[in-house]
Amino acid sequence: MTIEIEYARDPHAVRNILESLPEWFGDLESIDSYVVDAANENFVSILARDSGATVGVSLIRRHFSESAELHLIAMSPEARGLGIGRALIEKITADLADDGCVHLSVHTVGPSFDNDAYAQTRSFYRAIGFYPLEEHSNMDWSGPTLILVRPITPAT
């Protein structure tokens, strides 16, 4: 695999990737919402591509000049575990730092909901520098939502 990371939009690939990950994205309404977001100019879309095929997707929303939210990150099943997610996050945080951003946050299913897939997700976020901040109930769904944050070192 030769991965290229680029700023581009690919709502069709977002749908395909999310539909291929039912352990994480088993709700069609949620998938539809992410596909709409992937076409929305209010979200920055960064893709990982292998020979032109999109194998990883991420959406960023900038709430304030000092902070941004990782709204979505997902890899196709064959691309999981290859470091592509880490590469996307490193590109995102480097570019945010260059623009003066100092915090990147992400929401995911909280640890009080016992689920192996989301335990993997939380482990991934911790491994790439995110720290748990708060867990809330009924925030993004009817169960617990964990908010994690990663400090970004400003560019010098």
TrEMBL record:
Its EC number is 2.3.1.-. GO terms for molecular function: acyltransferase activity. Residues 3-153 form the N-acetyltransferase domain. InterPro entries: Acyl_CoA_acyltransferase, GNAT_dom. The keyword Transferase applies. Keywords: Acyltransferase, Transferase. SUPFAM superfamilies: Acyl-CoA N-acyltransferases (Nat) (SSF55729). Coiled coil: none annotated. This is GNAT family N-acetyltransferase. It comes from Glutamicibacter bergerei.
